[in-house]
Design brief:
It is a single chain. The protein is mainly α. 61% of the residues lie in helices and 11% in strands. The chain has six helices and three strands.
Length: 158
Amino acid sequence: MENGFRVKAYKHHRLKFVVRGKIAGKWDRRYFATKGEATTYAHQQNTKLLNEGRNGIEFPEWLRLSAERAFETLNPWGKTIEDAVQFYVGHLEKAKKSAPLEKAIDELITVRSEAGCSVVYCNDLRLRLGRFSKDFVGKTTADVSTSDIDSEQSEIFL
């Protein structure tokens, strides 16, 4: 087989044969004490090449391992890697459109004021949310989670 795994003699006091072939564009070498072990390994790798094609064997190991870990994490939830990717891309799209926190607070106070809320109420919002926004300077509304709010709530709203 052209460009497959081949057995060659190797000069070493214990390891007498080497099997060499390319995986993911890099040379892979495995050393064996007997020709039978080397031939078996070469045959297995060549069979894998035939069954999975070059793309299958050249699929980067780090990516395969990452996908396996992701699958194991999502499987108990009945979700796939594709589900997770779609969810995360949706999250990133929302985050991209998210307003800066300071701007959102200003808009909220303006909307409440225009809706006829009392001056005292609007001033209270301005003070409390102004203090709140100081803890999240430079963040957008998507960057602030409910747990962030809960951890800051005791300081801000008391």
